[in-house]
Design a protein that fits this description.
The chain is of the alpha+beta class. The chain has a single domain, classed as Mth169, Chain: A, CATH 3.30.1280.10. It is about 35% helix and about 30% strand. The chain has a three-stranded antiparallel beta sheet, with helices on one face. The longest helix has 16 residues, at about 50-65.
Length: about 80
């Protein structure tokens, strides 16, 4: 089963890469862009047929290892 974890910086945490992209977009006349956030998506293939337990396992992975919960938020999802 494929489970995805989307990890983003929490609001208020400085993101210089996103800021640089935002400035570059504005410099290229994409003036409608209000803000930019950078996220990382981790796609995990688990040996499980139980969606709820697979999601719970990936949430535990995020809490313990994949996300720095002091400065990052995460969202776990499945397509199925």
């Amino acid at each position: 089963m494929e489970i995805k974890a989307l990890i983003t910086l929490k609001n208020g945490v400085l993101d210089p890469q996103a800021k640089a992209i935002h400035h570059a977009l504005l410099a290229h006349n994409f003036s409608s862009v209000k803000d930019v956030k950078i996220a990382k998506q981790i796609v995990l293939e688990l040996d499980s047929d139980d969606k709820s337990s697979a999601i719970a396992e990936v949430e535990k992975m995020c809490q313990e290892l994949l996300a720095n919960t002091v400065i990052e938020d995460y969202q776990v999802m499945s397509d199925k």
